[in-house]
Fold:
Amino acid sequence: MNMDPADQLTPAQRAAIDRLMVDYVHAIDEGEYERWPGFFTEDGHYQVTGRDNHARGWVAGMLLCDNRDMMIDRVYSLRQVNVWEPHAYRHVIGPTRVLAVDADGTVHAQTNYLCVRTMHDGEQRLFSSGRYLDRIVFEAEAARLRRRDVIADSNRIDTLLVIPL
Amino acid sequence: MAQAIGVRPVEQLVQWPTDDLSRVPLHIYGDREIYAWEQDRIFRGPTWNFLALECEIPKPNDYCLTRVGDTPVIVVRTESGGINALVNRCTHKGSVLCYDSRGEGKRAFVCPYHAWSFDQSGELKGIAFEKGVNGLGGMPPGFDKSRHALTRLRVETIEGLVFGTFSEQTPSLEEYLGAPMVAHIRRTIRGRKMQIIGRYNHIMPNNWKLYVENSRDTHHPSLLHAFFATFKLNRLSAEGGIRHDPRNWHHMVFAKRLTDQGHEEYSPGRLRTMKADFGLNDPSLIAQWMEFDDNITNALMSIFPGFVLQQILNSVGTRQVITRGPDECELVWTVVSFEDDTPEQRAIRIKQSNLVGPHGYISMEDGAIGGFVQQGIRGDLDKQAVVEMGGTTADGQPTRASETSVRGFYKAWRETMGV
Structure:
């Protein structure tokens, strides 16, 4: 019988990953965007892409950041610079599936999400569904994202994408 | 080939409020009857519409799907290497023939419904049970398959961009574009082989014209887009201008970032968009290399009706406007690199795709602003937009503090609509 890659993790590591997943969506949904870069390593990589683009190997995703400073710039810009109608997200995430563990301990994992967007006037719609494809490392006791590819099921974005998924 | 069926004559629907182009009646942004006429007179009229990039169908028998206005279109690379464009509608019952957005090895198009089959030129080649069964049924003997071919568009390409037109009246692509636009396309692509690095399907909550005029609006960038103004990437005080074709249907607006002399309007505190305290923690986002000898760092070329060729720093790509009813449209962004790019240059293009698309530091606001207009005009469709900056005509101008290219769009719109 094949071993589940998750079995290579200690209970503490698994708990740390669960905390990371929950805390991440909680920070975004509660509008605590300044906390978002902190879920990543210094050299962390983030982008949103559609499933079809991902399958075709088109690498220029949306909200692409290849380090934490770029994420800080994005958050400052969405707070202070960009013009957009106020809205908020509500994520619902599924359990995290561990796909593999590298020799250096990097965890490859996938977590499904649904995200509903609520506009300032109350209009609600399913904004995005998809999966987080993550590479997770442990810094001290905490799990952090070295890379998060948000693979949205649809290639379409309604109006704009300013808050990270 | 018509949508304007059972609707009032277009001359009754649209009475232009002025003799010149300085006013635009707001009701053209939300009217289903006018929208139907636009499909017939513009998208199926004497215009060239962007269909695809040649690199999307590199091999014989590759195909991809696209739309011209509302009409679904198949673009296929033929066995002999040419490109054909066919309406994706079976002439039997009207079903789409292809329902997967792309594919390869497509030597014939067979309808999923009753298996009518068409060749790559759109000719009807086969009908299942054409002779019936055991001498019974089947098509009547006089049925002429040659009269039931798929509607075929004329196709021309320039520098890897594929265009199609429904009308025999449309002049050749180069004549339609005009020499300045042809020169700009050649200058931007210059024979380099494109590779797609990203595509964004951007749904906008506004009439398609509101996006197209935004793409041509040369005086909004430093006013709406704080990112542009703050980093001196595209301010009206930089050297720039507007070029146009002989008919003033198409416009190319450009700026040279490094020539910015400043202007008192951009003093801190004067404009919302000037953020003196906004510095990037990672300025690598706007690092660029001087790709073009003319030192143009920002160029948007808008071809009537709905195509844009974009160069923002080193982000090169296409934008295709697809209609989705009177109050919604889709903008298909495709960003590219070139085969002879160094790895560093390719990485810069990928990073700069942060400036464009529905997530773009700059262009996310263009996604929002059309919706703001669509919301604002509700209940006031008898009013008019004022398009008077820089005069009332649509000719080229040495300044971008002008709405001349927006007027050019409405010149083309009125001429094709016949109003």
About this structure: Chain B has a mean pLDDT of 92. Residues 49-157 of chain B form a domain with the Rieske Iron-sulfur Protein fold (CATH 2.102.10.10).
